[in-house]
Amino acid sequence: MMSVLVIGKDSQLAQCIMDCEKNFPEIDFSYKDSKELDITDEKSVKKIFEDYTFNYCINCAAYTNVDKAETEPLRAKTVNTIGAQNIARACKVNGSILIHISTDFVFDGEKKTPYIEEDYTNPINVYGKTKRDGELEIEKTLEKYFIIRTSWLYSQKGSNFLKTILRIAKERKEISVVNDQFGSPTYALDLAHLTLKIISSKSNNYGTYHYSNLGKISWYDFALEISKTWKLDLKINPIKAKDYITHAVRPSYSVLDSSKAQKSFNIKAIKWNESLQKCFLNYN
Ligand SMILES: NC(=O)c1ccc[n+]([C@@H]2O[C@H](COP(=O)([O-])OP(=O)(O)OC[C@H]3O[C@@H](n4cnc5c(N)ncnc54)[C@H](OP(=O)(O)O)[C@@H]3O)[C@@H](O)[C@H]2O)c1
């Protein structure tokens, strides 16, 4: 039996890991929410690892509000950078393997072909910078880690673009969505499955990986497909990012190349619209 600590129990990703549990009977899961374990508190993080032995730790906890991070940079850094450092140090002392989730927002979006793991990082907002610095802390501290960069995460759980569109469709008849920022949506259940596949395969291909669903689309394309799939009565208008004012700037292109993860962990990445369909069928 392998013991796995999942930090950030209420995150959409951890909730999806729970949904995958039954497929991995060889794993014994422990979950901690932010009240049980605040990752910014070094002593509490140390204590959790002293009290129990974990073969793996999956860190789903993060400061994920991209716009709010611009006005709360210290808080974002404390969670995304110092929090990651606290977890990496505790994993080091206790010999636990860390699976940490990072983001496409470590890139500036200037590239025109899918980003590979070795591409130069150059975050253009506070969230991306604090996440990139969290990656650096892990790389400095640990040898046995997997950093998985993902993008545009959605599911039935938590807050995400899909749920925002479904909510807005109940309140309004019309919406404008940005059509000149491109990326790949990722169904959190697919990412959850990948993290558990890494553990069950006992892979020692440590390092940084990209993982998203396949395809390049804009937020506008994503909204249209959501509307079509859920049969929403919602008129969706395309809008340029420059005309849609947000606190944080976002990369105009952040498609991730998932080939390294597919090869290393023997998984097949799924097309974004097929995964959206799967999410629809699972949605209740
Ligand atoms: N969402 C996306 O589109 C996206 C895209 C790329 C990468 N990612 C990354 O994927 C991972 C999972 O994202 P997600 O969307 O599943 O996250 P999420 O649903 O936004 O949840 C984040 C979780 O982190 C917890 N948390 C915040 N501060 C904490 C602290 N100090 N100590 C312990 N827990 C704390 C929150 O707990 P409370 O709710 O109790 O505060 C919340 O449960 C994150 O690393 C994120 O950066 C997300």
From TrEMBL:
It holds the Pfam family RmlD_sub_bind. Residues 2-281 form the RmlD-like substrate binding domain. It catalyses: dTDP-beta-L-rhamnose + NADP(+) = dTDP-4-dehydro-beta-L-rhamnose + NADPH + H(+). Transmembrane segments: none annotated. Keywords: NADP, Oxidoreductase. Coiled coil: none annotated. Its EC number is 1.1.1.133. Pathway: Carbohydrate biosynthesis; dTDP-L-rhamnose biosynthesis. Belongs to the dTDP-4-dehydrorhamnose reductase family. PANTHER family: DTDP-4-DEHYDRORHAMNOSE REDUCTASE (PTHR10491), METHIONINE ADENOSYLTRANSFERASE 2 SUBUNIT BETA (PTHR10491:SF4). Catalyzes the reduction of dTDP-6-deoxy-L-lyxo-4-hexulose to yield dTDP-L-rhamnose. This is dTDP-4-dehydrorhamnose reductase. It comes from Winogradskyella haliclonae. The gene is rmlD.
